[in-house]
Every structure is written in C-alpha cells, then in structure tokens.
Design brief:
Rossmann fold; 12 strands; elongated; hexosyltransferase activity; glycosyltransferase; Glycosyltransferase
Length: about 375
Amino acid sequence: MKNILIFPFLSISTGHHHVADALQAELDSQGFASEKMDIFSHTYRRLEKLTSEAYLKWIQHFPKTYSGIYRLLACGQYQIDKRYTMYEWLFTQQMRHILNEKQPDFAFCTHALPSYLLNRLKPEYPDMTVVNVYTDFFVNQLWGRENIDYHFAPSIDIKMQLMSEGIDQKNIFMTGIPVHRMFERGSDDTCQHHPPYTIIITGGSMGVGGILKWVQDLSPGGNILYKILCGRNEKLYSYVKSLRHPLIEAIPYLHSKAEMNRLYEQASGIMTKPGGVTISECLQKRLPVFIYHALPGQEEMNVNLLKKRKLVTDMRNWDMQQAEERIEAFFQSNEQVKEYVKHVNEYLGEISDRKIEDVLKRLIRNKKHSLT
C-alpha cells in the first residue's frame, strides 16, 4: 500500500482544492487511499482563516495592487537560485514534520507553495516521488522545478516552457488541468442549440469578482435564460431572487459535482472568470466560454493564453446593451461555432493521449517496481 499525500493550500474552496479532489477521486477509483494536507491550516489554523479572509478582501478591493505585487514576485523568467526565505521560515519545519510522520511515497502538489517547499526538501527524502499538478494555464516562479520528479502540464505551451527551463521531456505528462471524473467529455455538437439559450454566469464558488455588477447590468431580451451560480455569496443570491425575473435564475452553492455536471449539460454557454478548473471543465464539455472579468494574478495570466489559443471569448470591454445580441450571434453563426469547436478539439487532442488515470497507474506501478 502506498502512502499518498496531496498538498493544496489554504482552506478556501479554490481550484487547488478542486484539482486535489479530482486526483483523490481518481486514486480512490484505483483502490489507493490518499490524504489532503493544507500545511497552512495544519500549522497556523487561526492565522490561516484570517489570511484567507484578507486575501479575498485584497483581490476584491485593491486588485491593481495585488496584480502589481503578483507580477513582481511570481512572474518573469524562472531562477533556480531564487529563495523565498519567509515561506521557508514559516513552513519548512512543519513540512519536514509532516513528511517524517506520514512517510509518503507520493506527494502531489496542486499549489506552488508546497511544491517550493518539497523541492527544497526532496534531497532529504530521496525515496519520495514529488509531482507538480498545475491548476492554471500559467506557471509562476514559486513552483519547484529541479527536484520535482514529474509535472502534469495543462497545455503544450507550459510543456515547452518547462522544457526550456531544463525539465526532461519524459518527466512531463500532458494531462491538462485535472477535473473530476464526473465531468465527462461532451460531444462536438454540444453548443449547437436553439433559442432560448441557457447561459450560466459564475464568479467562482466564493462569489468574488465583478459578478454582482455584471448581473445588475443584465437586460434579458427574451432569447437567453441566465442561470446565476451564486456560490456562497448570500448578497448576490438575495439580489437575484429579489429580481423575480423569469429569465434570471439564482442557483445557490452546489455541493454535488453531479448537480454541476447536469447544469453544464443543460447549458449553451457560460460567462465566467478564467479560473483554470472552471475553464477546463467547460473545455471538457465543449461549452463556449465568455470571459466577463478576471481576478488579478493567475486569472490575468490565464486569459492571455486562452485568448491566444482562441479557447474563450473576451467580453470584458463589451457594451452590456449589445452583449446579449453578440452572444446570440455567436450561436447563430455556424462559422463561429465550428471555429470554436476546432480550437477546443485541437486543445483536447494535446491531452487525449495522457489520461490522468493512466498516468497515475503508470507512476504507481513504476514506484512499485523501483521499490522491489
């Protein structure tokens, strides 16, 4: 039996946790037990709650400041000798304690900070296999590189970046961003619907970002039914319910991925922020994506690649009075729909030969053989 740890970061429901859950589900389906470990809440439980709240307020109220600091600290060319001494001081000893107690054979990192720490500690634990599981379409400087055994790449662009930074090609698996097995791949004609079109609007499970303002500006003309995923944003949920509009429906936080999958199946498209997991789920379902807002940091970086690959439509500068007409025009244009499906199929083709379940089987089998 293998000891398997999965390291997201912070306790708030972000893409790091969704990817960790997806990995856990795949491992469980193969009969391997795993444990999620958030080193921050494990070490500083009270401080972690305050930090999570401060982070959410920061990106909401001072996005430009956060974006500037993020670009300064996390962007740019990777430097092997760059150290983050504060993170090391706060978390190294606790991470070492976890490794000594759990003795993991595998450590999967779905966040850059535990990856950085394990990259530093790996020489002390040579029998531990460490895997970076990237949760965005952008890889910042904090992610460990040289002592990481394997990398689950979200796109060919990231694979090429990692190779340029010295990572051996055979240690990179084109898995895409792992999504839960509940979200089965959609067919080529997923987005060929007839009016009224059902459009999901989501701002993430925490309901942060510009979603409230966007909903306030909605002016349904009759051909689109809007389903607003409110997450844990009670203010947003109450506002949408108070509208009592037949074409604007409030959806509370969904605890079941099966419910979310059914919602995807009913939808023609989605308006969302460019979070890595949400985008990956939509690509799997071949659900057209319209970006109305991007949080500072990773989401800003995600937009750049997604637009370059023509996998999303950027509507951040659209006139709201014309937005509905432009969305209708998209679905009514066979040329636009075919072009979208073409680019999505190209992306899915990149990752189709490396299904996450097959990669996990291979890694665990190789580990077993190396131990024997």
